[in-house]
């Protein structure tokens, strides 16, 4: 060994330190696990569908858990993909415009790309058919797609004989903002409905009820809106009281100091609104809207507002009247950039619509609360038995009610999020968040909402947030960062299937599926599993595996999980490696020669772990920490 006297053997000790996730050292900016596109494929955790035609230009997706298909609408095509394995057994409808139609479109001054047929609507229509609408080369149209009623039924074709004009049902172009929802046979849309993409409106069409829309060019109703989502949410058991909610952003007239201020909005109407008798004929007579606020309380009482609504997700609960609403926002403030997620309960939304109306006496006046007499029936309420039943339809409403609704579409109060602050804020500029889907999970220590957040660079973040009642603070834990697409492309659509524990993710050119969890990856030790704090996973006595809240008591005895605190010391007491496992999961010994280089591994699997190397010169001397060269 030290024979030559001047060559000294070095002993290099490497320790892998797993940081306390629950304590003050918890690191919220790094995910616990980061999985590359390749790793996800190798683990068989994802599958990817690429269009065999080489292009997709995805615009809409429809999840059908009953038929076990994912329907995807793109440029000149509709696909039916298998929910089980998205890359296998696809069916295709090729649906280009005719040469004549393309020619006509180009004569109007549009280019070839714009004159393609972009599929923008896909809804379940009845047991055998989907409703689809497309831009048709600046001449929108709607048609039905025959799908198999039974799983084995391989039908998937366009009923080309029954197509109809799509104005008000689908935009003329492929890129303007658009939302739609089908209620029974009535199609509700929020869109720019004309050739020039100027006429922003909310429409109802197709069904038994009369066609109806918002008034033309009334900036009090809609002022350059960008539509984000629309959903029917019942108020009670009386179907006549059902309401449709539209989520959008628009230029806020009431932000008097700055004409360009954008606010996020919730707009609402009665499903059975058929307009007024003398005023608002064939126009919505129950439309109301309110500001949707997502802000962080600041020092000096100056709050930071996130006003650009990017995505909305409705988490269903057992009570179909009260889904939990998740909003993903960004801020365009020139002071700083960032994203936030806020949660809203229906009770606070309803309270604002039942509250005071906003009022402006005239051009010279400021916006204020309306303090005068509110007509009966209350403007914005539906013609239903719940509302006294005195009115069969909105056409029977007194002119006062209709006129008031027309002049006071805005509510005075804003809708505030649960806990009056976001559940998640990202201002580090590392991720641009675009899409959100949520799964509610039962864990050993309670219920958690797992957020799946799609970014603009092909990544999905899996995050939980934990509210601390005493501190009134929110802790976020990034469980996983998943590089779904090989290329850093924006995620434009996400559908979630809790039943299948799969997330379906669309980019412009491909569709991917990814399983919610892969518990093995956290490591097999009890401490590794507990520190992961993944509500889907628990240590089962042997490995880190899927946690089922309903499993038998005998099996449960061995279960170790602590999502709230990640307290592995307590959970894994008496297990192998306890004590040790917390601060010394692994130890490596390497030999080296002085003045020569040795490679010291320093990237642990878990991004919340840390590797520290110590060097010992000879056997007698003490260990010294090796400091990484700062580069
Ligand atoms: C290693 O390098 C240092 C400085 O470069 C020198 O002082 C020392 O003698 C060298 N040791 C051996 C064993 O070569
Ligand atoms: C991958 O997962 C699918 C189900 O999603 C399964 O059918 C297939 O057999 C798996 N392949 C491998 C190699 O495990
Ligand atoms: C579903 O709707 C389509 C289009 O209107 C119609 O042709 C078909 O008969 C309907 N199917 C059922 C089962 O009602
Ligand atoms: C914020 O959201 C709007 C609407 O989706 C989008 O146009 C804008 O690019 C977003 N800004 C950032 C910085 O992500
Ligand atoms: C340094 O190490 C490399 C390989 O580990 C060896 O080839 C080389 O001879 C060593 N140099 C000295 C000066 O010991």
TrEMBL record:
Keyword Lipid metabolism: no
GO CC annotations, alphabetized: extracellular space; plasma membrane
Segments passing through the bilayer: none
Domain Sema per the UniProt entry, residue ranges: 32-516
Biological process (GO), any one: semaphorin-plexin signaling pathway
PANTHER family, A to Z: SEMAPHORIN, SEMAPHORIN-3E
Protein name (Swiss-Prot/TrEMBL): Semaphorin 3E
Organism expressing this protein natively: Callithrix jacchus
């Amino acid at each position: 060994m030290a024979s030559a006297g001047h060559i000294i053997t070095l002993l290099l000790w490497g320790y892998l330190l797993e940081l306390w996730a629950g304590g003050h050292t918890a690191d919220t900016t790094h995910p616990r696990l980061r999985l590359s596109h390749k790793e996800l494929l190798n683990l068989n955790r994802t599958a990817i569908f690429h269009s065999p035609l080489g292009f997709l230009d995805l615009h809409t997706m429809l999840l059908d858990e009953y038929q076990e298909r994912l329907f995807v609408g793109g440029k000149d095509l509709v696909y039916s993909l298998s929910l089980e394995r998205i890359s296998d057994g696809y069916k295709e409808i090729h649906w280009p415009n005719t040469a004549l139609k393309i020619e006509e479109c180009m004569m109007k001054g549009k280019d070839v790309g714009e004159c393609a047929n972009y599929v923008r609507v896909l809804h379940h229509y009845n047991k055998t058919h989907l409703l689809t609408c497309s831009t048709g080369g600046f001449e929108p149209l709607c048609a039905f797609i025959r799908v198999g009623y039974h799983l084995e039924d391989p039908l998937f074709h366009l009923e080309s004989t029954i197509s109809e004009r799509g104005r008000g049902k689908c935009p003329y172009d492929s890129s303007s903002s658009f939302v739609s929802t089908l209620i029974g046979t009535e199609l509700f849309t929020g869109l720019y409905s004309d050739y020039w993409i100027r006429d922003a409106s909310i429409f109802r069409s197709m069904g038994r009820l009369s066609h109806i829309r918002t008034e033309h060019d009334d900036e009090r109703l809609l002022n350059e809106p960008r539509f984000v989502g629309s959903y029917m949410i019942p108020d009670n058991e009386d179907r006549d009281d059902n309401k449709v909610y539209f989520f959008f952003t628009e230029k806020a007239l009431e932000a008097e100091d700055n004409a360009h201020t954008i606010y996020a909005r919730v707009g609402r109407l009665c499903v059975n609104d058929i307009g007024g008798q003398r005023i608002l004929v064939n126009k919505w007579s129950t439309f109301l809207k309110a500001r949707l606020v997502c802000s962080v309380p600041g020092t000096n009482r100056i709050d930071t507002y996130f006003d650009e609504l990017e995505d909305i997700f409705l988490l269903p609960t057992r009570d179909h009247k009260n889904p939990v609403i998740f909003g993903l926002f960004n801020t365009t403030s020139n002071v700083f950039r960032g994203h936030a997620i806020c949660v809203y309960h229906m009770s606070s939304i309803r309270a604002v619509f039942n509250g005071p109306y906003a009022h402006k006496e005239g051009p010279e006046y400021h916006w204020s609360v309306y303090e005068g007499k509110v007509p009966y029936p209350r403007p914005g309420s539906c013609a239903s038995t719940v509302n006294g039943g005195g009115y069969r339809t909105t056409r029977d409403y007194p002119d006062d009610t209709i006129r008031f609704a027309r002049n006071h579409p805005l509510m005075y109060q804003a809708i505030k999020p649960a806990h009056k602050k976001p559940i998640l804020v990202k201002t580090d500029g590392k991720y641009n968040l675009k899409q959100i889907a949520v799964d509610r999970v039962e864990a050993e220590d309670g219920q958690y909402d797992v957020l799946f957040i799609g970014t603009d660079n092909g990544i999905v973040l899996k995050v939980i947030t934990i509210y601390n009642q005493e501190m009134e603070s929110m802790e976020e834990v990034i469980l996983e960062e998943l590089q779904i697409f090989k290329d850093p492309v924006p995620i434009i659509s996400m559908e979630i299937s809790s039943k299948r524990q799969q997330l379906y993710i669309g980019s412009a050119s491909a569709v991917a599926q990814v399983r919610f969890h892969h518990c093995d990856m956290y490591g097999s030790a009890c401490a590794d599993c507990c520190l992961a704090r993944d509500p889907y996973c628990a240590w089962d006595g042997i490995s880190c595996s899927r946690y089922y809240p309903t499993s038998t008591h005998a099996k449960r005895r061995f279960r170790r999980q602590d999502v709230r605190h990640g307290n592995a010391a307590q959970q894994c007491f008496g297990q192998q490696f306890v004590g040790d496992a917390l601060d010394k999961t692994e130890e490596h010994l390497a030999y080296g020669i002085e003045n020569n280089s040795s490679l010291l591994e320093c990237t642990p699997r878990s991004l919340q772990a840390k590797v520290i190397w110590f060097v010992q010169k000879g056997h007698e001397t003490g260990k010294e920490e090796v400091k990484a060269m700062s580069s």
